[in-house]
Amino acid sequence: MSPRTFQAQTPLEALLVGHALAIARQLQQAADAAPDGHVLARVEAAALPAGRESTRRAVEAALQAQAEGAEKKGRPAASAPAVAGVSGRSAPPAATS
Questions:
Q1: Where do the DSSP E strands lie in 15-76?
Q2: Label partner for 80 (CA 20 to 30 A): which of 3, 17, 65, 96?
Q3: Annotated domain spans of the chain
Q4: Mind listing the pLDDT tens digit for each residue in 21-61?
Q5: How many other β-carbons are positioned within 10 Å of the β-carbon of residue 12?
Q6: Angle of helix 39-73 versus helix 11-33 axis, rounded to 10
Q7: CA dihedral 7, 57, 19, 51 (to 10 degrees)
């Protein structure tokens, strides 16, 4: 197969492409090293934790990028609406039977 070029538009995309390539290589190594009759089990055993970790890192990176963008924008001009029934005074204890 001839080499292919991928162009990431964002740091998150670059992260995901890198993870996908690493997982693909890891799965190929697991398949190549597995004895006959055990290929599926070995590849699945490698794929599941690698996929979970890649997804966790992608979610973390997406949330971090969103948080950094929100910090650059600053706080919103309007304040948050008050919760109905909250007056700042403590409420009387609930009645019990």
A1: none
A2: 65
A3: 11-73
A4: 999 999 999 999 999 999 999 999 999 999 999 999 999 99
A5: 17
A6: 170
A7: -130
